[in-house]
Amino acid sequence: MTRFGTRVAVLLAVGLVVTQGAASARPAQTAVKASGITATVNTDGSYQIRTRQPADWTFSGTVGHPLTSRSNTAGSDSIGGYQQVTFGYTDGVPRTASIRVYQNAPVVLFSATNQSAAANSAAATFPALTTPALPYRESFQHKQFSPYQFNGSLAPDSPLVSFDGHDNGFLVSAADNFAVANLTRGANTVANGITSGVTTLPAGFTHRTMLVAGQGINATFTTWGSALTALGGKRPIPNDAGVTLNNLGYWTDNGASYYYKYDTSKGYAGTLTAVAKDFASRGVPLGYLQLDSWWYPKGSSNSWQGNGTDRGGEYRYQAAPELFLNGLAAFQKQLGLPLVTHARWIDAASPYRQQYTMSGDVVTDPAFWNSTMNYLADAGVATYEQDWLSSGAQPRYNLTDPDAFTGNMANSAAAKNVSVQYCMALPWNNLQSTRYQNVQTARVNEDRFERSKWDTFLFGSRLASALGEWPWSDVFLSNETSNLLLATLSGGMVGVGDAIGKENTTNLLHSVRSDGVIVKPDVPIVPVDSVYPAMAQGGTPPMVAATHTDHNGLRDGYFFAYARNGGSQSISFRPNDHGIAGVSYVYNYFTGAGRLVPAGGTFTDTVNADGSYYLAAPVGRSGIAFLGDAGKFVSLGGKRITQLSDNGTVRATVSFAANEKSVTLHGYAPTAPTATGNTVGAVHYDSATHLFTVTVTPGTDHNAVITLTR
Known about the structure:
Elements: E1 29-34, E2 37-42, E3 46-51, E4 57-62, E5 69-76, E6 81-91, E7 93-102, E8 107-114, E9 118-119, E10 128-130, E11 136-140, E12 148-150, E13 160-163, E14 168-174, E15 181-185, E16 189-194, E17 200-201, E18 206-215, H1 217-232, H2 243-246, E19 249-250, H3 267-281, E20 288-291, H4 328-335, E21 339-343, H5 352-355, E22 358-359, E23 362-363, H6 366-378, E24 381-386, H7 401-415, E25 419-422, H8 427-432, E26 439-443, H9 454-466, E27 470-472, H10 481-489, E28 495-496, H11 505-511, E29 526-527, H12 531-536, E30 543-551, E31 554-562, E32 568-573, E33 584-588, E34 594-597, E35 603-608, E36 612-618, E37 625-629, E38 641-646, E39 650-655, E40 663-668, E41 674-676, E42 680-686, E43 691-696, E44 703-709
Parallel strand pairs: 19-20, 19-28, 20-21, 21-24, 24-25, 25-26, 26-27
Antiparallel strand pairs: 1-2, 2-3, 3-4, 5-6, 6-7, 7-8, 8-18, 9-17, 10-16, 11-12, 11-13, 13-14, 14-18, 15-16, 22-23, 29-30, 30-31, 31-36, 32-35, 33-34, 33-36, 37-40, 38-39, 39-44, 40-43, 41-44, 42-43
Helix pairs in contact: 1-9, 6-7, 10-11
């Protein structure tokens, strides 16, 4: 059975207690209201959702049958307080449905249940909405890495965001049953049900759909993702959660120097041990090391090289004995670093097919996952990377197996404190990750990060980060400044694959401290709102993407922009639109020049295909725009500047690695500032550019406190 046959939208469901009674004994309509959204249900089975913000919009539909019951309730769930209309009707079988609107977020949750077993048919679709006629839309394709598309055909497992030229939009997605959800759209309609590959829905089957309206494409994604992760029980993951998010890593996947090859004089294990020692000797110690698919036997050949054009699936998920003579745990002890281990699907020749319950080419059996995670945890594995999710590593698409595959994987890993990374994910995999706290990262573009993949990386980061996953760019080499910069701005993993002795230490220290800790932003870099309608209109508009750090109400922005026409293009952004309050100073990181932007003003520049990078800092009450560590891409990242305030005097706490001797801070001031602090050097001021620098050294606690006044 294929993943998606003929698209069939069927009933959405949740089990709710319903007040019984004849529809004629009740008012013609019942309405609930919250967050400027009004949901109305009529006795004839029609329903409407009306919004006041960002516009006066109406979404309408009908269940096609008179109601048999109807009631209003109020309550709260993991998203927050809500008002709800619950109603019943009969469409071959008795069904119960509800529309829930939330008090503190512009979110609508549609739910319904068939009360007895029923055929999966198109006769009872809920919701099937007529929507506002907005000119543009974005969705994500049912392909590896869920690539973005504008105005294309809708994949059944993708969210759909519709928007206008003023960044007003709404987003619709499944809220559960992600693997078998079937989102469909017409000219101005959208409906959600279950794929036709599922022929029967059991009694009590529940399916839900979420609708979010918002001003700003990014705000709409964020509201939707926050609601969906809350519904799934997933809490926000800190950007330094565990060694793979906190520290520089080394990768051996496709595009890296040691992908299926090694120094034959050292062996594979010896080569990688030498890599770790070399990085440490150069002052950029690694936090972990990734082992790609070469590390375990594959294919019918039961060898680390595998066989066939794709080398085959896992024969046995254990270290290949010809590479690791004493096993994985012994290698990890020799290496002295945590590991990330790659995984594929189960090969047709694998003995696992006789040992464990399978679905398609993956194992659903919890015994396999418990055994696997025990083995990995004993070998110092920090992260399990499930690759090939769009191809080989897929379960059968029914109502149970996708949850068994991803759920048993995540739960067994969590029991051993192992995090999970998704790679080659389909849209439903990303949505499914909202159920698992330890699914922390996701690859968002194809192998070997490079210039041609920047667009996919940025739009993919928008989807992944909304759903609680830190985006991962994939491997690159440390001398590739822009790739290193973008990986750092992702807020997620930073990993390189240089050959021994080829590291660019100077470049890497723009991203990490000398202990290998990444100095990163608070949130992943994503395209700014204005990019979306420009892209949806066609052509090759330039890219502008942004992220930020926050300190005590002070927000500093980081903007990366590049031409997409093969030449040069004009770009613009307004710092105030990104929470950078009042007058700001925008500094070009690579040219060392900057200029003031008035409150509400627009910064403009011309960029080429290689990109330009800007820091935007507010001019505080002191009159100073503090730019932070002059040597770091994310100059005010929390791993360097732990505290910052400006109440007329700038006060900053600078954090050092144990072996760091000094940090140079910089900023803008209309006149030369005065710097004080126990470990603070002299201020150097350029009266022509109004830029200043000052060097600080650490105290005994590896911190320095500096105050700046004018």
